[in-house]
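tl;dr need the bound structure. longer version: we got a ligand (zinc ion) that a collaborator sent over and nobodys looked at where it sits. i said id run it. heres the input, straight from their email, havent touched it
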Amino acid sequence: MSTESVLFAGQLLLPEGDNSVRLAEGVLRVESGVIVGVDEGPLPRAYNHGGPACLITPGFVDTHVHLPQFDMIGAHGATLLDWLQGVTFPSEAKWSDTDYATAMTHRVADQLIAHGTTAVCAYASVHAPATAAALMALEQRGIGGVVGQALSERFAPSELVGSADELLDQTATLLDRYPPSGRLAAAVTPRFAVSCGEALLAGAGRLAAEHGAVIQTHLSETRQECDLVRELFGCDYVEVYRRAGLLTERSLLGHGIYLEADDCVALRESGSVVAHCPTANSFLRSGAMRLADHLHRQLRVSLGSDIGGGYERSMVRVARAMIETAAAVGESFPTAKQAWSQITAGNASAAGLRDAGVLCEGAPADLLLIEPDVPWQTLPVDPLATLLWSWDDRWLQGVWLRGQRSYASA
Ligand SMILES: [Zn+2]
């Protein structure tokens, strides 16, 4: 890799405090795939990429996505449990063929990168070889984050379940191969409480604690699911995970729509993150998460596409859905500035991805070059609001992963 400086010039989306962003004109200097300088001020005469009307942002982070589900987006009409049985499981069964999983993950990587997503918290399928293949494929493409084997021992066809001991052994091997310290790591990923008995959930909690791994699972997405969990375990959903040691600062719990006050206390005290997936919730008619209430209760919240329950690949569009959902159900809703912060630094921080989501010295050069075709800097609207609400995927001119150009618009 060349050690020559590459200069990216334009309006930079920079961190402001711990959980906000600001725009500043300036230049990023990149060497050997790493940002080595952030120089604010008028643009120099010569630079390699960008220009005064360009926006340069960190790559987007998606904190909840299912890799095997990209080909089944659009299965509209069913609700969660029927959708799983009727559409999702047949799609995931194809991952018993590891070559298929490898090829599909490369296609998914193409789609992620072309929409500006450079780090993911992703579910694979129940198959360990396919999960390893997905990790290898995303690593080859330079995408960061975590990928987990979707642990399931019941509530699915026989080809999509395993025994608890076997599944835990397989995930332990994946964690050894892709440890949590890496740019791309394995995660402990019990699919959801309905799929797992107490011993598997407790084993997953132990495994995550031993390795310091990210935990991914689903929580309280629909009322029908919550009722089923209560029937299976004799207690509330959050309590199932608390008993199993699955509520930690590294836990990403997809959805969290139906939470009572004591659920929120348990989540807050453990530092667990609710991964909000507004497009999936509307698509499957699961309900609407009350973001303002969750934030008022001091819950940590991240944002995810939840493809294929979700239908939007672009995290900008998912962020818009977050605002619209919050506005529909409550009095307060995130600003455009908060939305941009969420899909970059906010999601990276919630997922514990230290090297993602921020333009700063020492960070990997995971960069997006965006060239809007509207005069976004001179309109009588907050520029970040113009960029968010008039967003057009065709504005994305280039994507760099660790300083390597991985996407160029046609
Ligand atoms: Zn999901």
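gonna send this back to them w/ a short note. The radius of gyration is 21 Å.
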